[in-house]
């Protein structure tokens, strides 16, 4: 009878020793991973957040007229923008949110110092007199919408089915041509 009670105790002891071994291994692995991650972050450029950037909006006449958004990293910041379109809207209604003008992801743009990224926003892609008037653009880096900034537009504009290009290193690539 005694052997039946000893067996569960032995199993518990073995499980406890195994748990200690696994905990030690997991701790060592986590420490090594954290060290490697910390080291890699020091040499790797991180993704830009909206607060890392300053923005400028200018009116361009090419391709029927559009807004060129210029993004630059704030002083002391080095970060990158993925080659996807910015999160932007002219108002709070879903029909004023910009849709992508491009169907593929562009190259990543690294920002630091005077290096800039550019996105073109065509506020009206329809060929009619419909639309609503706006004086401001709400803009954020995609994925950071809760920290959007509001930018004054160079002029009041009519908005109907707006589109935006991806972020590009060359402003000539940020022209939102209509199809």
Any key phrases for this structure?
179 residues, alpha+beta, three-stranded mixed sheet, 1 helix, 23% helix
Order of helices and strands: HEEEEEEEEEEE
Q: Round the Cα radius of gyration to an integer and report it.
A: 26 Å
Tell me the fraction of residues in β-strands, as a range.
35-45%
The count of helical stretches stands at 1
- Low-pLDDT windows of residues: 1-42
How would you classify the helix and strand content by structural class?
alpha+beta
Helix content: 10-25%
The count of DSSP E runs of length 2 or more, i.e. the number of strands, is 11
Note the overall shape: globular
Q: How confident is the prediction overall: mean pLDDT?
A: 82
The oligomeric state is single chain
Main pleated sheet: 5 strands, mixed
What is the terminal-to-terminal distance? 86 Å
For the biggest β-sheet, the strand order reads 2-3-8-11-6
SSE inventory with pairings:
Layout: H1 2-43, E1 46-47, E2 53-60, E3 66-73, E4 79-83, E5 87-89, E6 99-100, E7 106-111, E8 116-122, E9 132-140, E10 149-159, E11 163-164
Parallel strand pairs: 1-4, 6-11
Antiparallel strand pairs: 2-3, 3-8, 4-7, 5-9, 8-11, 9-10
Verbal overview:
- The chain has 179 residues and is α+β, with helices and mostly antiparallel strands.
- The protein is 23% helix and 35% strand.
- It contains one helix and eleven strands, in the order H-E-E-E-E-E-E-E-E-E-E-E.
- The chain has one helix spanning 2-43; strands at residues 46-47, 53-60, 66-73, 79-83, 87-89, 99-100, 106-111, 116-122, 132-140, 149-159, 163-164.
- The strands form three sheets. Strands 2-3-8-11-6 form a five-stranded mixed beta sheet, with no helix packed on it. A three-stranded mixed beta sheet has the order 1-4-7, with no helix packed on it.
- A hairpin with a 5-residue loop joins strand 2 (53-60) and strand 3 (66-73).
- The longest helix has 42 residues, at 2-43.
- The protein is globular and about 50 Å long.
- The relative contact order is 0.19.
